[in-house]
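protien #1 (seq + structre)
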Amino acid sequence: MIIKDIKEILPFNKIKVYAFVGPSGTGKSYRAQMVAGEKDTHFIIDDGLLIKDNEVIAGESAKKAPTKVATVKHALFYEEEEKAEIIKALKKYKPQSILILGTSDEMVKKIAANLGLPEIEEIIYITDVATQTEMETARRIRVTEGKHVIPVPTFEIKKDFSGYLLDPLQIFKSKGKGQKPYISEKSIIRPTFSYMGRFTISDLVFRQIVEYLAVQTPAIYKILKTRVENYGEGAKIYMEVTIMYGYNVMDGLKEFKEKAKKEIEKLTAMNVVELDVVAKNIYVPNEEE
């Protein structure tokens, strides 16, 4: 769907639009939900994502883009397809207010205009909510460790960031005497354009991990076949095994699958999209040739 004139199509004129502005790496995403809460808004636009409370409801993170230039274009919603997805969600959820994050006044104004939103009512700056020391610390972590924050829990974006290094971050802050505490979960990622550069994981690595774990599983006697297909969203693994007589087949395979999935995701930062384990036969010790 090509949208030629968004303002003529969408009744967004009643939405209160706020913006949160600060240089890259100074802690905007880290503080986004706190600022949104103070403005009594449940919706945030940050780096290509539309977030409602702690849930991503539309968009794809610009932090997945291969270059910094591409992240900026993605965050501004230049592509009609990206723009249309966010607009569709806004029409569905009908927010009364929304907070847009950006690195400059010009950037947040462009985002609002590209999505057909009203003019920004108020701009909050990072210097209003963070000290110089806090901003310098955030910037140092960005530069030296390549870490970026996304203001949603890790489980919300785990599937979309297969192959990225993800860490959960829980924040508990008091806003002051008599105020409700601010509790939030966020995710830290290292995008592909960070100083670490790209990395790839061979199918052999997945195969070696699952085969090692299978050997450590008492219910599995022998591995007959292992096949790995590595897709962008994660790995699909197929195994055929011989089960040791005396073990419950279903329980043994279920335990192995759960352990293997957890271990692979921990060791490789890749999602296991599918793990099929087929018991082809049973080994009975007293029938050994």
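ok now protien #2
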Amino acid sequence: MTWIKTIDLNDVEGELKTLYDQVKTPSGHIDNILKAHSLRPRTLVAHLALYKATIHTKPNALSPRERELVGVWVSRLNGCDYCVEHHRAGLARHLGSARLALELSAAIGKQASTPLTQREQALCAYATKLTKTPAQMEARDLDVLRNAGLDDAGILDLNQIVAYFAYANRTVLGLGVSIDGEPLGLHPDENEEGFKHQ
């Protein structure tokens, strides 16, 4: 599960119980990345707020497919299999095809003959540079995104998705969070308040 102690759903009370009730899956499961925060509920609150704001709240200039694709790619670059598996399953839900989700996530970083659109290639190129060499980012890196149809709010949306996954990946990798048979691809509804996964 993790390399540190976590508090199980059956043993929670108070604020943590309230938080767990908000995020448990329809089957009553709490994702291990969320349980990793159980000793400090305040960091779970902050993680959930950032997750919902960057990935599952409107308005967002990136489509659900693009958001999940960027998340899978950043997680692959960081070597975070946990997040790759979760968000590739989320991508498959949006596409209606696990095979296509696997094909798309495998195509990132390859030549134009891939099933990625030019816009998706631009999003992933920005995500690659920001993830691998952040100190080398330049103002002209945003020109490619503008040419791909993003306005400044869309560029901010992309930037925050990449930054969120850097955070989530390091939470997982730094604490040894494992997938351990978790249900994959569930996420909160971006049209509703709260974090209940569906």
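Residues 10 and 175 are 22 Å apart (CA to CA).
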